Amino acid sequence: MKFFLDTADVVAIRKAKEMGMCDGVTTNPSLIMKSGRDHKEVIQEISGIVEGPISVEAISEDAEGMVREAEEFSGWGRNIVIKVPMTKEGLKAVRILKDKGIRTNVTLVFSPSQALLAAKAGAAYVSPFVGRLDDISQDGMFLVAEILDIFDNYDFDTEVIVASIRHPGHVVEAARLGAHIATVPAAVLEKLYNHPLTDRGIEKFLADYEKSKK
Ligand code: E4P
Prior knowledge:
single chain; alpha/beta; TIM Barrel; binds erythose-4-phosphate
């Protein structure tokens, strides 16, 4: 499974890359705002750090505007993918952009039918938002399983990005299901490394080593 970082924080991105845990990056307007940086400037910097796909979200609500933005954003780096919302206008833009050779990530996917339509429209990626479904007492990971089942039946090139990840369990379940990608917030990535028994084990081994020294 590929790991994307779900952040616009370049320090976190550099750290994850150093560990070999950053195959790509997803951003959205909220994450860019959180970084406190200029949109274009931060995307260009991220694109210089990470070789894999960098998702940048279109803001327009009509297909024409999304295509215009996609053409502009694509000039910011060689690896830019355009995030398009799961709307009829969004899917219209996906088709046009595919013909222009611009890859898209259909975002805000909350049902298997939306993912199916996005794949048929030619999206390179679909992003089911598992955490936001869990937040309203629905099962986000069940949606991922349904989408993967559907995609398994056909020859879609579309990859599934498990998005809106809230905790390590989401990442583990994404891998168990065989999702192509998990886009992970930096704080969740940190938690994936840890286990209290590992810490306790190291402490004990070090203590015993000290005792065994003559
Ligand atoms: C990624 O593509 C999404 O923008 C992100 O995972 C949304 O996460 P949130 O639901 O925590 O805002």
